[in-house]
Amino acid sequence: MFIKPFVALALVLVALSGAAQAQLSDTEQKIVAAVQQRSPAALVLLEKAVRINSGTLNPEGVRAVGDLFRAELDALGFQTRWIDMPPAMKRAGHLVATHDGGQGQRLLLLGHLDTVFEKSSAVPLWERHGDWVRGQGVNDMKGGDVILLEALRALQAVGALAPARIDVMLTGDEERTGRPLTVARADLVALAKKADYALSFESSHRHQGTDSVSIARRAAGGWVLRVKGKPGHSMGVFSSASGHGAVYEAARILNAFREQVVEPHLTFNPGLVYGGTEVRYAEDSATATVLGKSNVIARDAEVRGDLRYLSPEQGERARQKMQSIVTTGNLPGTSATIRFTETYPPMPPTEAGQQLAARYSQASQDAGLGRIELLDPGWRGAGDVQFVAPYTVGIDGLGAQGRGAHTDDEALEIASIERGAIRAALLIYRLTRPAP
Description:
- The chain is of the alpha+beta class.
- The chain has two domains: 301 residues, Aminopeptidase, CATH 3.40.630.10; 124 residues, Alpha-Beta Plaits (2-Layer Sandwich).
- Helix content is 36%, strand content 24%.
- A hairpin with a 4-residue loop joins β12 and β13.
- α2 packs across α5 and α2 packs antiparallel against α12.
- The longest helix has 20 residues.
- The chain starts with a helix and ends with a helix.
């Protein structure tokens, strides 16, 4: 159901981006030159940011990166403010910057300050290897934050920023979102409701030699399966008196999920499975404790899984199918329940998103940087742009290119900073110009 519409959008994008290229205007040529002139300084700024550990659970580090970028935005003429989160949330908060020149369409530019690398991480903060840099969050997504800033700086250098209406939000907990989400993302949603377009600077992907951008991202949620059986001596397993036990019932349910719930762009991963006579789970450490013996029929079993889907309708279909499997056809002597949660809402592909991506692709081609393709949503995780998708038109993947995001080998291609800043600056310029 979802493959054909997405492929159709991709084909339209290729057709549009393959149209006759317009020449860069004099102002746009100056924008490109301004980005190129700043490339060495942009790398210095990136190094400053990456050398600050800003794991989500290190609020002081997140705030320090926020202070660094806030000074850059202040110098560009933005009105900046820091939004604190409630102390119980244990998150640093968010940086918001506003520039209201009073003309053109209003843009919302998105990034995040935190990384997956906490203070205890042994990954080096910064290591340069020729044309690449390895480090904590260098690709996801401090490189994207720098591209955002350099694009704005280039616009200011040629006098094109003054009339623009732009909001910037750099969240401090994208990698481990604070709870409740209604509080953690309330300010982001409020900004989205005022924006004509949202541009997110998460890392870019290259597929078969061509750069790509995302107009769709799958929801990120979860599920917890709890199964009950009759404890007893293992000699009685499968009997009418003892039943099959909780572990066999959990296995039946998981296999039925695999066989019956599969759809394109839908995934459901059982990341943690545990069972025995007694089970416990600690949310704060994501660890399970199990008591049991091989000669005792399991009384309890639990499974904690991930659920990703491309539209609300697909998500609802999946939940209904999974619920039916859990409560129908239970093995003798067992029962089961399942609970679902949603962390990031889905961002389904839209025609308006495709058109925005086509404009980004055209800007890239006009600058001699090649066309941009649509990235299959299965190749990208969840991100903050999904919270704004219901209220405005957004695209993601305008950030740096690299490899190994979220791993010990996370790295960034240095040249992608300049490419990304040129593309973003041209797109922002074209979107914010007052209508003739």
